[in-house]
Amino acid sequence: MSLKITDVALPFNGVAAGATPSTKLPTGLSYEQFLLIYGGATLAQINRIVFKANGKPIIDISSRGGFSAGQRLDRLNKFDGRGAAAGILIVDFNRFGLRTRAAEEITKLGTGIQGSPNEIVQITCEVTIDAAALNPTLSGKVIMSDPDVSGKLKHVHETMRRSNGAGVVEIADIPFGQYDAIQRITFENATALGITEVEIMRDRRTIFKRTVSENNQIQSDGVRVPQADIFVFDPTEAGFGEEILSLAGVQSLQLRVTVTAAGDIPMILEYLGDVSA
């Protein structure tokens, strides 16, 4: 068991209102968390956050549904049981809040072992700051551990669908073929849409069907903290890391969202897969 290291990240270049400053995370150790330290800009003025491994986005969240990227990630952190961001926004590469260290750390960004399968040779972070920010500052710290191979990473992406009115919104086109599993799906704008129930079908068989109250109650009894305005499908809600929605051999995946109003449905999709997924 290695000691976790906390160190200062390399400086962001080009920090300014309306800009997209970036920094590099040198390889050599394994990255578990990134602490985004912001000033002169509110959380609502952090418009986009992108982490890339080998030039390909593995975390990519922007402003949608009236919330900034910073606010959306902060809300998921609070769902995981973290305190609200106050000048520091934590970005997890690990899977936070599970019952074993191995389950949490399986998705860390392992680097430093040359020639390993799916080797990570470059990691970057880009943050877009709103033009209304006043004299923004941006820096970072990283939580790291010993060098390791790159295993299954947590891929965090977003998409948007729309409800045209009361009824069931059928979603059958989210990407999944290149990933091993789905860890979590977050449906946002739940209050305005009047989301009452979510059903998930894999190969035309229902594997999840809950109302909002049922989902909140079950997750409150586990390791999560339900948040207003979001509905989260989270197989790890009880803290068991092996509980995931496997995609091996899956031919179809359907989401059925019951709503009472028209409007956008922003979604955050969390997958598990290789760095090349």
Secondary-structure element series: EEEEEHEHEEEEEHEEHEEEE
Gyration radius, rounded: 19 Å
Measured as a percent range, the helix fraction is 10-25%
Biggest pleated sheet: 5 strands, antiparallel
Describe the global form. globular
Low-confidence stretches: none
What is the quaternary state of this protein? single chain
Report the structural category: mainly beta
Terminal CA distance reads 29 Å
Number of strands: 17
Question: What's the rounded overall pLDDT mean?
Answer: 96
Q: State the helix count.
A: 4
- Note the beta-strand portion: 35-45%
Summarize the structure.
With 277 residues, this protein is mainly beta. It has helices at 69-79, 101-105, 190-193, 212-220, and strands spanning 5-8, 22-24, 30-39, 46-53, 56-62, 88-92, 123-129, 137-145, 153-163, 167-171, 181-188, 197-202, 205-211, 230-233, 245-246, 253-259, 263-273.
General description of the model:
The strands form four sheets. Strands 9, 11, 14, 15 and 17 form a five-stranded antiparallel sheet that branches. The longest helix has 11 residues, at 69-79. The protein is built from four helices and 17 strands. The radius of gyration is 19 Å and the shape is globular. By secondary structure, it is mainly beta. It has helices at 69-79, 101-105, 190-193, 212-220; strands at 5-8, 22-24, 30-39, 46-53, 56-62, 88-92, 123-129, 137-145, 153-163, 167-171, 181-188, 197-202, 205-211, 230-233, 245-246, 253-259, 263-273.
